Amino acid sequence: QHGRVKIKSTAQQEEEKRKEREKKLKIYIAARDACFSKRKEGICDDEALQLTQQLLSSNPDFATLWNYRREILMHLEDEVQKIYEAELSFLESCLKVNPKSYGSWHHRGWVSARLPQPDWARELSLCDRCLSLDDRNFHCWDYRRMVVKMSGVPVDQELGFTDHLIGSNFSNYSSWHYRSTLLPLLHPESPEPLCLSEYELVQNAFFTDPNDQSAWFYYRWLLGRGITKLVTCGALFLSLVFQAQSVGLLLVLDGQPQRVEWRSVHPRFKHSPVWICDLPPGTISDITNEHNLTVHWTEKHTHRDCALYTGRTESYCRDSATDQELFRSELSVEKTSVLQSELQSCNQLQELEPLNKWCLLTIILLMRALDPLGYEKETLAHFQTLKEVDSMRSAYYSDLCSKFMIENTILKMEYAEVRVFSISDKNLTTLCHLDQLLLVTHINLSSNQLQRLPPQFAMLQCLEVLEADNNNIENLEGLFCLSKLEEINLKNNNISTLADLQPLASCPKIKRLDLRGNPVTQMAKIEAELAELLPSVTDILL
Question: Are 21 and 163 contained in the same domain?
């Protein structure tokens, strides 16, 4: 046995490690308590500086100690340049312990901003080194942006920096994002030659690795750059309905301001695109003449005009979705040509990668921008493929497809100049843009996959007939105070209790209600209870 190294057992090793940890912990706790005591007594001396350095060297995420250290540094008035440069060196050692330490990067920014003669080149070099180790270190990216701003680094130089990082790694999402903040500064007007070079750069990225999302996100931003939308929409009734973001509305009738109370269409909405007021009885006694109505939105210094025509009891003033370019912006010839070219490129990639979700989704969005109605069939097919290849996000794709189908139906309705909205058997899973259906009198939502009529449904203030058979509806919260609603068809849904039907009590003119095929019809005495809840209904189908 002589001359041989004695091998310790696992139990011995663990015991020694435990004792070593306990020893270090006691030293750490003692130093921490000493720091807290000094801070409580307002002591800011060299010993406190050394104690915080000892603790932060092993645990750079102790925010209280960084705060104390800043208090100490602010009390040191001699040789500030030397002290702060030493602090920067100490911070580098902390970043080696944890390169993503919130406290270390924040403290470095604080020190650099207070340094009498900062060496910004050194700070940029530090950022380069950190990003070479982890190109998605967002703490370092934030610090770099501060350094660039403080030192006045030219924008084109930073753009070249992103070129270098992207060239070495197409998957560098942070570089793509930084690039999207720099380009508008360097080229506010988005010149065509620049766009083409950017399209070529990003296409090289996603043709190289079609499954990497970084380039696709940048591509989406690039395609949408320069497309702006101005959305204003309103509708006015004798019981006035006006679209705005908040109540700051003044009603003027024939030149005279009126004292009215505005309310949203549903109690849950403190902020709403639609507000209603009732004109007091006798406000308009002469309906044989035309009257002028103006609503002033005081917060936005804008107003809307409409007229109450002779013999009419209601008046409308509303911009259409097509006039507003609500769902797509009017494209110039040049922009259309570029988007068509990009669609062709994506279609080529899709032929090579038919199951690539990023490519499919981008194709859908390009088709929406170019011609939503003309590409409707292709869009639906691509959504079906998306739900199959990316099943974990199928609900998202279903909701997005529903949104697009509703937009298309609104456009078709406006082109036909009708007040009937029919979107049955489209596999809808959600409802949106309901503020665009203010004037609809008849809506058909049958044979979809809807589970609820959301509070926003109360924006359909002119609705008279609702058809929503063959869905999965179990919540009718949106059927609130629809004063013109007369007929409701809810056959084969999932309404299970009388409480689910309670919102209908706020609709005073309902005459016909079809609930066949709902669980609620199996309840005892349901017919009598419905008669009590909805006294205006004369035809109940159970």
Answer: yes
Q: What is the rounded distance in angstroms from the CA atom of residue 540 to the CA atom of residue 542?
A: 6
Question: Rounded CA gap, 488 and 471, in Å?
Answer: 14
For 210-241, the pLDDT digits (tens) are 999 999 999 999 888 755 432 223 333 444 45
Domain assignment present for 187: no
Length, in residues, of the chain: 542
- Domain boundary (143, 160, 179) is at 179
Rg (CA), the chain: 33
Which CA distances in Å does 460 have to 12, 19, 510? 77, 73, 15
User: What CA–CA distance (Å, rounded) separates 162 from 141?
Assistant: 12
pLDDT in tens, 342-391: 999 999 999 999 999 999 999 999 999 999 999 999 999 999 999 999 99
| Residue 376 domain boundaries | 333-401
In this predicted structure, the answer to whether residue 114 has a pLDDT above a threshold of 50 is yes
Place of tokens 């570029």: 338
Strand order, beta sheet including 275-277: 240-242, 275-277, 262-264
Same domain, 16 and 150: yes
Over 80: is that where the pLDDT of 246 sits? no
Q: What contacts 50, CB < 8 A, 6 or more positions away?
A: none
Name residue 290's amino acid: E
Query: Given the structure tokens 């419905």, which residue do they identify?
Result: 530
438 token code pair = 């203010």
